[in-house]
């Protein structure tokens, strides 16, 4: 077999953690509500090609992605009976491709609706679409006042089936947005009535992301679009505390699916009174043992973690010292005995009793869980573990 060099670090995806998170989500929603696994952003950095088949194995049958190329990767990597919904905008070629592959997609404006009408006429196939409405986030979606015009265009075309009607909430993870979210829900419910009065269409209704599932459980309607929870994270601390206060006996209901690991490539002892790495950001007050790890900002390890980050080596938490370089960083391992080249380094995950969560990692760098995960490069090798 031909030799293929691998990345200097690897990501492990835990199947048992994913199973636990999926059960948590299923238990949090009504029985008839569909759980759609949101896999945008390369499955929040987990790697769509490895994550999607695993989620399918764990029983997920509905996936939401952002773009046509993500839907393409999903089709390539998961063979079976499931639905795909694209939430982002599509050009005419992508619309045609989606319809030909029975992929559902959002229609957020008249441009996309008109393109879709043209395509279905040309290929004489039915498009299953989700009408996205603007309810107060002021991002994408039709104003509700366009309702009549939308329906009449769709009815004329005959080849468009309204599979869903949806909106997105503008920050349901924070109680500070309560009024704004409640207004959005109210608008959506009025819209829902308009559809129910039509009778000629029986769409599903969906508005809830992870935070809304936990904070607005009465308003999950027919489907939830859940991202971050399935990967084992609460959307933010506030949502975790809210959940914990309601379920005090359920201390850690979610389990982190991802771990990120590498190996030490160099160790050495530096005399007291020297600088480590570029410039003068780290000075050795005492004789210091250091270890070099082949991870840097080119691999998604934020440069803001210079002199801030933590890693696990030999079961202990050690500091990142000096600046994070493009491809390397340095750890202070003075207090560890027997550290040697090839020792495992954990950047996210567990080693013995210690753990580094993405959250603790991102508090240091002011990056949200979401952002840090989504930035993990696609070419780091991923593997499934139990
Ligand atoms: C990202 C996204 C979600 C999922 O958000 P989470 O907070 O990760 O659950 C749901 N709906 C839409 C439209 C999204 O873009």
UniProtKB/TrEMBL annotation:
InterPro entries: Ala_racemase, Ala_racemase/Decarboxylase_C, Ala_racemase_C, Ala_racemase_N, Ala_racemase_pyridoxalP-BS, PLP-binding_barrel. GO terms for biological process: D-alanine biosynthetic process. GO terms for cellular component: cytosol. The keyword Isomerase applies. Residues 257-385 form the Alanine racemase C-terminal domain. The active site is at residues 40, 278. Catalyzes the interconversion of L-alanine and D-alanine. May also act on other amino acids. HAMAP family: Ala_racemase (MF_01201). Belongs to the alanine racemase family. This is Alanine racemase.
